[in-house]
Every structure is written in structure tokens, then in C-alpha cells.
Design a protein that fits this description.
Chains A, B: This is proline--tRNA ligase. The structure is a homodimer of 543-residue chains. Chain A is an alpha+beta fold and 543 residues long. The first copy, chain A, contains 17 helices and 23 strands. In chain A, the strands form five sheets. The first copy, chain A, has an eleven-stranded mixed beta sheet, sandwiched between helices. In chain A, strands 16-15-17-18-19 form a five-stranded mixed beta sheet, with helices on both faces. In chain A, a hairpin with a 6-residue loop joins strand 1 and strand 2. Chain A starts with 9 loop residues before the first helix and ends with a strand. Strand 5 of chain A pairs antiparallel with strand 5 of chain B.
Chain lengths: 543, 543
């Protein structure tokens, strides 16, 4: 068998600039399937009872299909994505197919954010993805930031086009072109819209979810009469993202302002949520830009104010993308695979029926179906894995790897007792296992809901603790260098120049992730210049 | 004022092959706004009471911003889209910006279909939009059908690409590339997925919603072990589309099979729903294809069957797009503008508060707000137009033009009586107006719900009657020609050749829309050849 095979070649393939060779993926798939099969066989043959299988998981870690985190974080990440069937590689270098299980997480993200956007007065709409090349050139820093990453359509309907078309990398330019036609008076403001769309950036180093040539996102765009209103909007949206990260994804992001160097191409100010991944690298997980009047001046987006004077509008834009799914994987996952926060998990509860003798089958399946109906009726996302091709042990591993928060086990003795066994994904072994939970609908639903809430907050607490253990206050550049070399985030007073900031990047690989909103009190001295500093900044290596 | 201005130049601009000149659109916008203002002024000045304004609508038709249907159907269509703010033109020829009110209709379509797709076992996912050019060439009739319409990316990240990338016109090729990697055994079948995505087809003659260079759609793709299963799936999906059209959009489509000439490039059989628009042209509003093994043979998509033998999978694909919104506009709209079926209307009920004296304002607005809350709590999509810049008369016209099914009017006398006035969008004048409907929540909600259901079925009945008046059974080619020249659909027994079918198209402009599932009984004789025919076909001019 292939149990001892090393890492499969996902890493190198995704980074390779060449289109995949045709035979490559099917080899990988077969490899993956066979490895699963090996886990199944091992689990089934080495144990006489299911309790043994479940309790035995640690000793079987070496048989797993997933590279241990400690061995190679990147390989672990790619293994989780492949084995949990979250995504696969598209035929064009750097593109990604989002598979149903991964897409269901995206749908959960959409459902939550869509509601929040509408509650705060935004309407969904849709802009074309083809942008005349000349538009991109109108805002000077915007073109500088995006022109190296553009995909260009030059042929349409068999003919060379007069003007090249940009496949949108972001939509500020085309949005402003339209806003200019829709906005006339102060009564047309604020104009607050959002679109869910695909965007394309010709990235050289790609990684599933985190950085792909094409990705899905939402992009909000607003126009306001005053600087203050636009600032309020930009802050409101980064606050919605922050709450989403904490409450839904259980990711304790650090929210703050980007440095000038890291500000979005064309913005006055960029606000960001920065998440610490399991390898302690930072992931920029969402941004909200105060665009000032940069685009309105470039596109002539003006309104007549209450005094009858013509003014340029003040604007914002803000986005969260499928990259966030990468953040969820890398925040919560462990050696067993994915671990999903209950609020976003496509399957919150997996039911595994267990029987040995044929005469036990019907009674167990009936009970399992009834339990499923009770939970489902209560709005819990539940799945019953009643397939007969796999042993319960194999299913335990499989759904654990898929990150399902709770597992309900039902065997003949449970049915006789009117109870079930419930295991938490986030607490391994006996400690996470509760026996004798009543099958009676009210009791069971209450128990499951309480546990789901418990898991949601346990994931957040664990992530907060991990984050806080790995952010260090430093008071000199040497200390900063040391912390970064240890893989940590360094927090320090900072008022030095852009040039100094770039020097830190060159010498340590770390960048300013943000000036956090949450600032320590008291006088501060810049670690680089010794001058007074108004704020602390957080430096870290990032994706 | 600009009341007497002729058609604004939407028609020619959208069809023009050149990118719009920069100044054009703002002129159009101003024009549109001024015309509205003129309606407002007229309504406000010519009437001493609101009843007069509302009852006076017919005489004001000439002041409307919308070209009468009888005068120019295409101009009427474009006026409705512009004035109801459903969509606007993108900067690139043939592209369209879907504005919030239009997008909300799309969201209603998505909500309904998404549920039906999931209920029937399909999962959402996402495929990349860039397809290697070589993929398109693999299925012979597919490349022939699509190659004239392709948009090609030739430059990425500043470099000429080795292989041109097709911006997806449809995804069968890339789907099969991936299915080939995911499907191994009969246990992997059926594989049933769907994606909501944008697609690009380089159309020369474009029209908002109906035919645009880029559009939004859902495309379902499935793979099955047998011909029968794929056939069942293709039929199941056209059935879901048919039910959607009748029950949600109130569009009485004719469902049937396409002729060989009109079958999708790469399919064995195409099923279609054909809708009759207000100008009696046919709109292909949704299709479901049985692809047979055409793509699986081209891409080597095989599985091991229960006997251990390798077989090619049988496949389907099916789609509905934003074109459907054009179908809704052109089925139900009238000279006053849009008319939306309640099930898909973003706003089902508009509340217009009416007061003259300042001391009446608060009491009317309080009552209006309370009515809004009652309806909203009952799940009715309701909006209160409490803006003070417009007269009630202007608002009546505006929301009528936006196609809102029901209007609730509340004035001081109504508040005193504890009642409201309710008007139906689909029944003009006094006949559609009910006075003295109690404000009490239970009574009001019941009344509104009953009326919404009534409007939904009235729209369908009216459309069925219109459709049936305009389909003629013909028994000779001369009769067919005459019916088509009168703008009607012609139904006739047909067993002639593809060549004969193309001859009809050349000579009359009509094509076979479908061989309807609903076939008359009895022996049939082909109108072209005099040979026996198994089926009747429907010929019509189409979009």
C-alpha cells in the first residue's frame, strides 16, 4: 500500500509557472484515495471495538494522509485542502476550482455579510468585468499598483480590439465611471452599493484560497458628501469585518490602519483586519479603504451641495474574499485536518450509525434518522453518514478531517438506552466525549446547541491565547529582529520613515501589518529613530 | 421643458459598435431626470385632490417618460429599463451594469432556483473562468458553435501568454476536465453540481438583459452512469424551469425539444422553455441539454461500472440567465412601465403617505409606519416612500413605473377612519382601487396577501390568454408564412429536413422554437413535405 508515500506534489505544482501536465492530477487523486483506504483498513483491522478505534487515534497519526503541522505547515495546508475536498487546481496556472464543501463555507460567509451589508443600507448590484485600459490609467497610484498584475483581453469575436480590456482586478475605476453618471445632487448621496464578483490578478506566487489568479469576493463602493461621512463608513465596514471574524470565524483579528507604504493603491487610508495563522504568519483578511477624493477627481465624480456648489464626492471601498477560507483553515486546523467554527460549518453535526449484525442495522438506522430529524428541525446543519462501504472508524477519521464540530455515534446499545454518544472535534480523546446523552428531541437539541456555542467560543479563546503568546512588545530594532526571527509578531512604537519601514522589510522579511486601533497608553519612543511616537505598530511576516 | 423630446438615443447607442463618447451618458441622465420633473410638476399643478391625479393618469400618458408600447416596442423596453433603474450601459460596447432594482429581481430568481437545485441534490461550486484555448477545440461542434463569440486573454502580468485563454462562454469543457479527475467508479456517480457565474460571449447585436457581452447565469452540470439517468435529469431541470416560469415569473412558457438545427453546440438534445414577449417575438428563457457522451469522449471522462468495465459518463447541462429579467419586463410591462409578478417583486407593497397641512404630517406618518411594520412582520416586502421632495402624485407614477404590485395610500381622513386605500398595479383606474380597508394588522395582512396572490395569478392568466390568441395552427407553408408575417407563432406538423427548416428561416425570419411536449393527438402531415409527421413544431421570430 501507499501508506508510506511522502508528501504528494501539490506544493510544487501549484507554484509551478507551467500548466499542469495532463496526467498529474489523476495520479494525485488515486494516491489520495488509496491513502484513505489505508486508514480505513488500519482502523478496521486493529481494533475489536469502536471505542478502541476512537481512543487510538493518536497512535495512528503516522498513518494519516495529512502531513503533520510541525513537519511542514505548507504541505499540511495543501493536504487539508485536497483531502477535505475544499478546492482543486484549475487547468490554468494559479487558478482554483472551489469544490462544494469549500464553496459551502463561502456561502455561509456570504449569508452573514450580505445581511450586515443590507442592514447598514447597502444594495447589491453588478458591474461588468471588462474595463477599458484607459480607465486604469486615470488614477496615478492605482495604475502603478495594479498594472503589473493585469490580465488583458485583446481579441474579441475573432478580431483584434482597438482598446485592450482589463479583466477587473478591482472595480474602483468602472464604479467611478458609473457613479459620475448617477450622482448629481447631494440628494443622490450617500450612494452605497456592493457586488459579489470574481476578480483577476496575475499573481506569480499562488496558493489555494490565499492568493489565486482569479478569486471571489465582495467589493463595497460608497460615495458621500463629506470626508467625515466617508471616514465613518470606512470604519463601520472594518468594524463589521472585525465582528464577523471574531463571532463567526472565531478568528481574533487585530484591527488597525495600514502604514502609508501598505495602503491600497489609490486610497487615503486603508483599514485592515490582520489574522495570525497557525505558522504565525499574518494574513490580511479584509480591508476597508477611505479613498478620499482620489478617484472622484480622476473621474470627475461631482455633486451639487446644499449651497449649490459643485464638489467632488468622498468615497470608500471594502472587500473580503475567498482568501478568508484559507484563514479559517490555517487558524483552527490541526494534525487531524480541518476544524471548522460551528457558525460557518456546512455540517455542524455528523451522525455515525454503528452496527455489526444485520439484525441491528434497521433499529440503529431508524434511531439515527430520527435523531437527524430532531436536530434538523431545530435548524442545526446535520448529516447522517449511512453509507455501507466504510467502517465507522473510517468515517470517524473522515469527518474529523472535514472539521465537523460534533459527532453523534449511535450503536445498538445506545438505542436500547435511548441515548447517544457525542464527541467534540476540538477536544481529542475521552475528554471530548460524552456518553449517555438522551435521544429525546428537546434534551438532545439543547445539549447540541449548547455544545456548538461552547465549541465556537473555545476555538476563539484558543486562537486568542495563541495570538497573544506570539505578539511581543519590543523596545529596540534588535529586539524586533530577534522576535521576527523567532516567528513572532513584534509590537513597537513607530514614527520612522517609509524608507526605514522598507529597510525593516528587507532585513527581516517583516512588514507593518497595522497600527492597531487598540493602543497602549503613555509616552512612546520610536524604536528606529528615538523620536517621540504617537502609536505602536505591529510588524510581522505575512502571506 | 423637455416633455416633447423624442426618444432618447438608448437604442442606437447600445447597438453602436463604438465605445460611448464620454459626454453622452450624462446628457441622457439629465434628460431623464428633467422628464420626471415634468411629470411631477404636471401632477402637482393640474389637480386639487389626489383622487384627480390618480384618476387622471390616462390623459397624462403623453407626458410620460416612457415611449408607448404601440409606438415602438424596443424603445418602450429601453425606456422601462432606464427609468425603472434596472440597468445601465457599461463603458465597453454591449456590456451592462445591473442596478440595485434589477439585481434584486435577480436575487429573487436565485433564491428560488437555488433552493430547488439543492432539493434535487445539486451542490454549488465554482470553476475558474479562464479556459485554455485547446479545451474549446476538443469537442468538434462545440468549437464550431462558440469560436466566433470568444473573448481571449493574450496578455497576463505584462507578458504575452504561450496559450491564449478563453474567458468562459459556458463551462462544459473545464467542467469535464475536472470531472475526469473526480470520477473513477460508479460510486462517484451521479455527480451533480451548479455554479452561479458570469459568462462572456462576443455578441455583435446586443440588447440589455436579452443579449449582452457579459451576463450572469447559473449553469448546472451533471454526470451519470446511464443514458436514461441523464435524460431524466435533463427533463427534471427543464421541468423546474417551467414551474419557475409559471409560478414565480407568471410567464406561460412553452416547453419542448429544440430541433437539431437549434440544439446546443455539443449536445444530443436540448430542451427549452420559450416565452412570448409583448411584441410576440419568442424569447428562449432557459435550456437544459442532454449532452450524451460527447464531452466525456472528448475529455476521457470515464468510470468503472458495477461489472468492472470502463464506460464514458452521460452528462447534462442547464442554464437560466439574467436574460430572464428581460423576459419579465417584456411579458408584463405596459405603457405605464414595469409590472412585476408579486413573487419576484423586490417591493411588493409601496406605502404613500398623503398630507397637506403640517399638523397632519405626524399622524399620517405614524400610521404609515405602523402599517409598514404590520406588513413587514408578516414577511411582505414593503417600502414606505416618505420623502418630502416629491408630491404623492409623482410617487404614484414613479412606483407604478417601477412595477410595484400594490400601492397603499394613507391620508388624514384614512387615519381617522382607521383604514387605507389600496390600488392594484395590474388593474388601472377606479376598478383596481379599494377604499376603506382596515388598518388592523390581521385584516390588512390577510387582504394584502390575498391580493398579491390574486395579482400573481391574474398576470399569468393574462399572459396565457395573450399567448393563446397569438399561436395559430397552420396546415400549409403559405398559412405559416402569413401567420408569421402577422407577428404570430405558427404551430404545424413538421418532419422536413434541416435544409427546409433553414429555408423557412430565410424566407420568413422564423425558426423552430421547439417541438412542444404538449402535442395534439391524431395523425399529422408535414406542412412542407406532405409526409407523415410525428410531432407539431412551433415556428416564430425570436430574440
Amino acid at each position: 500500500m501507499v501508506v508510506t508515500l511522502g508528501l504528494h506534489p501539490l506544493t510544487s505544482s501549484f507554484l509551478s509557472p507551467a500548466t499542469l501536465s495532463p496526467g498529474w492530477t489523476s495520479v494525485r487523486r488515486q494516491d489520495r484515495r488509496l491513502r484513505y483506504f489505508s486508514v480505513h483498513k488500519a482502523a478496521g483491522s486493529s481494533s475489536s471495538s469502536l471505542e478502541t478505534v476512537a481512543g487510538n487515534q493518536k497512535s495512528k497519526a503516522q498513518e494519516r494522509v495529512i502531513t503533520p503541522i510541525s513537519e511542514d505547515f505548507n504541505a499540511w495546508y495543501l493536504d487539508v485542502i485536497a483531502n477535505a475536498e475544499l478546492a482543486d487546481y484549475g487547468p490554468v496556472r494559479g487558478t482554483m476550482v472551489i469544490r462544494p464543501y469549500g464553496y459551502a463555507i463561502w456561502e455561509a460567509i456570504q449569508d452573514y455579510l450580505n445581511l450586515k451589508f443590507k442592514e447598514t443600507g447597502h444594495s447589491n448590484m453588478y458591474f461588468p468585468q471588462f474595463i477599458p485600459y484607459s480607465f486604469i490609467e486615470k488614477e496615478a497610484s492605482h495604475v502603478e499598483g495594479f498594472s503589473p498584475e493585469l490580465a488583458l483581453v485583446t481579441i474579441g469575436g475573432g478580431k483584434e480590439l482597438d482598446e485592450k480590456l482589463v479583466v477587473r482586478p478591482t472595480s474602483e475605476t468602472i464604479v467611478n465611471h458609473m457613479f459620475t453618471q448617477w450622482i448629481h445632487s447631494h440628494r443622490d448621496l450617500p450612494l452605497m452599493i456592493n457586488q459579489w464578483a470574481n476578480v483577476t490578478r496575475w499573481e506569480m506566487r499562488t496558493k489555494p484560497f490565499v492568493r489565486t489568479l482569479e478569486f471571489l469576493w465582495q467589493e463595497g463602493h460608497t460615495a458621500h458628501a463629506t470626508d467625515e461621512e466617508a471616514e465613518h463608513e470606512a470604519l463601520q465596514m472594518i468594524d463589521i469585518y472585525t465582528k464577523f471574524a471574531y463571532e463567526q470565524a472565531a478568528i481574533p483579528v487585530i484591527t488597525g490602519r495600514k502604514s502609508k507604504v501598505e495602503t491600497f493603491a489609490g486610497a487615503l487610508r486603508t483599514y485592515t483586519i490582520e489574522a495570525m495563522m497557525g505558522d504565525r504568519k499574518a494574513l490580511q483578511a479584509g480591508t476597508s479603504h477611505h479613498l478620499g477624493q482620489n478617484f472622484s477627481r480622476a473621474f470627475g465624480t461631482m455633486f451639487t451641495d446644499v449651497n449649490g456648489e459643485r464638489q467632488y464626492v468622498w468615497q470608500t471601498s471594502w472587500a473580503i474574499s475567498t482568501r478568508f477560507i484559507g484563514g479559517i483553515i490555517m487558524t483552527h486546523g490541526d494534525d487531524a485536518g480541518l476544524m471548522l467554527p460551528p457558525n460557518l460549518a456546512p455540517v455542524q453535526v455528523i451522525i455515525i450509525p454503528i452496527w455489526k449484525k444485520t439484525n441491528e442495522k434497521d433499529v440503529v438506522l431508524d434511531a439515527a434518522t430520527s435523531v437527524k430529524q430532531s436536530l434538523s428541525a431545530a435548524g442545526i446543519r446535520v448529516k447522517l453518514d449511512d453509507s455501507e462501504q466504510r467502517t465507522p472508524g473510517w468515517k470517524f477519521n473522515f469527518w474529523e478531517m472535514k472539521g465537523v464540530p460534533l459527532r453523534v455515534e449511535i450503536g445498538p446499545r445506545d438505542v436500547a438506552n435511548g441515548s447517544v454518544v457525542i464527541s467534540r472535534r476540538d477536544v481529542p480523546g475521552k475528554e471530548g466525549k460524552a456518553f449517555g446523552i438522551s435521544m429525546e428531541a428537546t434534551t438532545l437539541v439543547a445539549y447540541v446547541n449548547q455544545k456548538l456555542i461552547g465549541i465556537q467560543s473555545a476555538l476563539l479563546e484558543r486562537a486568542i491565547s495563541f495570538r497573544d503568546r506570539n505578539i511581543v512588545d519590543v523596545s529596540s530594532y534588535d529586539e524586533l529582529k530577534e522576535s521576527i526571527s523567532l516567528g513572532k509578531w513584534a509590537r513597537c512604537p513607530w514614527s520612522a520613515s517609509d524608507k526605514d519601514e522598507l529597510r525593516v522589510k528587507e532585513e527581516t522579511g517583516a512588514t507593518i501589518r497595522c497600527f492597531p486601533f487598540d493602543q497602549p497608553k503613555g509616552a512612546k519612543t520610536c524604536i528606529m529613530t528615538g523620536n517621540p511616537a504617537d502609536e505602536v505598530a505591529i510588524f510581522a511576516k505575512s502571506y
